[in-house]
Design a protein that fits this description.
single chain, 477 residues, alpha+beta, 7-stranded antiparallel β-sheet
């Protein structure tokens, strides 16, 4: 089994869907490569993100044989005497190793035992979970479908609506989303020396990268001549992005022992822009206001938001309205990067808390803000997850006021794990906490104003706002 990706899947809304068309994306953050298990597994995913776009879902992963006829340069380096392929890319079926039903169930149990955080009222404990292991593994499991049913019931007993089982087909679909623009997903793995490598976890059949000769298991070495050694999958994916129909030059090494090749790939944007913007006039306020509607946090969100806001500034916008109503989330990392656009260096975007409440990660802005103008953020009951992270980051750091309704309250972090038969699990392993140490999950965030306020009220509120103090973390939040 292997931990694949950190995600914060969106809420299943109990209320009727909004009148606008809203997608239901998955949300992802990167994991430390040290969290990988060493068990040999099929090569599927440490993706940074996935929105399960219908276009991507209809396309399969492709493990190809030698390259198609393409324009490229190649050479074969001297192979090491003990060259071997990465264990992560060895399929148990190919090697003839059988995985028993009991092993699949035990792996699922172990994932929960090591990683699950109970954010509800069920009072999960290691002792009760150990007893469950004895109950479920006390007898032989005769079929794979029976093993999957046992895992489903085992996860349902946790009482967490976001922790769930993924069938092999559902798990495969999750790996197909392309956030690079060239039809691949990247995964971070550690080599024998502890150095992070970026591997291709899968390809969209006949996508740009596959057509150019990139293959399953290839290692990405450089993008446009820039070495990606030490970079995260998200950083490398961002480097690969660009306008549709433009080209990017990448260098890949086929497998662990194959040739190194430089490949020219034409970008083909699959994700649609989630940004809509216009210049508006507001009574009793600044003469020009930049209105920006962000429908979801996909791979284009940050880039297109920056473009929109710069254009609005050039048109005379003196402050902005960021509309996050009915935005259920998307890529959490995109949300984090968007929040950083407005924050001063060192200011907190969000905290993440795991099973140990004293083990807290503080995600901060690393540089000066790109935009320093006041912001009004519009929110409602369907503003969730990554949207809530952005809204609270700007609000708690006195960069914005919130207007509208209480937000949904989805602040959990999920991790997706693969089991050895190609199925998988989504497990809640942590939660987000705002810069003001408010637990988002199940609570939501109250707005500062129910109705759109006069500009004088906005400036008054922001001038009286107090930024969060660097205090000792107590009881997790």
């Amino acid at each position: 089994m292997v931990r694949l990706l950190l995600c914060s899947s969106p809420p299943s809304l109990s209320s009727p869907p909004p009148t606008t068309s809203v997608s239901r994306p998955f949300e992802f953050l990167t994991l430390s490569p040290k969290s990988y298990h060493s068990r040999k597994i099929p090569s599927i995913t440490k993706a940074l993100s996935s929105t399960l776009l219908s276009v991507a879902l209809s396309l399969g992963l492709f493990c190809g044989s030698p390259l198609d006829a393409i324009s490229q340069e190649s050479y074969t380096p001297q192979l090491e005497l003990n060259c071997r392929e990465e264990a992560e890319f060895i399929d148990d079926k190919a090697t003839g190793k059988a995985v028993t039903n009991e092993e699949i169930v035990e792996d699922a149990w172990q994932i929960v035992n090591e990683s699950f955080i109970d954010t509800g009222r069920h009072k999960w404990s290691p002792d009760s979970w150990l007893k469950k292991k004895d109950d479920i593994l006390g007898a032989s499991i005769q079929s794979r479908s029976r093993a999957h049913e046992i895992i489903k019931r085992m996860l349902a007993s946790l009482g967490d609506p976001y922790t769930r089982f993924l069938s092999p087909s559902d798990f495969a679909k999750m790996a197909r989303y392309d956030m690079t623009g060239i039809g691949i997903n990247l995964r971070e793995i550690l080599d024998d020396n502890g150095v992070v490598k970026l591997k291709v976890l899968g390809l969209i059949l006949d996508g740009p990268a596959h057509s150019a000769g990139v293959r399953q298991g290839d290692e990405l070495l450089s993008v446009n001549g820039v070495d990606v050694k030490g970079k995260s999958a998200f950083e490398a994916s961002s480097m690969l992005q660009g306008p549709s129909e433009t080209f990017v030059n990448i260098t890949v090494k086929h497998g662990n022992c194959g040739p190194v090749q430089s490949v020219r790939v034409q970008r083909q944007s699959i994700a649609k822009s989630p940004v809509f913007y216009r210049l508006e006039q507001v009574k009793n306020g600044p003469s020009s206001v930049g209105y920006v509607r962000l429908k979801e946090f996909n791979a284009l969100a940050r880039k297109d938001l920056v473009t929109a806001m710069r254009r609005l500034q050039d048109m005379g916008a003196s402050y902005f309205v960021l509309d996050l109503r009915d935005n259920l989330g998307g890529l959490v990392q995109e949300g984090v990067e968007i929040a950083k656009l407005f924050l001063d260096k060192g200011e907190t975007v969000t905290y993440t808390v795991g099973r140990d409440p004293l083990s807290v990660k503080n995600i901060v802005a690393e540089s000066s803000p790109l935009f320093s103008v006041p912001v009004i953020v519009l929110v409602n009951k369907n503003t969730a997850s990554a949207s809530e992270i952005v809204a609270t980051a700007l609000h708690d750091n006195c960069k914005a006021v919130l207007v509208g309704e209480r937000t949904y309250g989805k602040g959990l972090i999920q991790s997706v794990f693969e089991l050895n038969d190609g199925s998988g699990m989504v497990v809640t392993i942590g939660k987000y906490v705002t810069p003001n140490h408010i637990d988002i999950n199940g609570n939501g965030i109250d707005p500062d104003f129910r109705n759109f306020p006069p500009w004088s009220e906005v400036t008054k509120y922001l001038s009286a706002c107090h930024k969060p103090q660097a205090t000792r973390w107590m009881n997790g939040f």
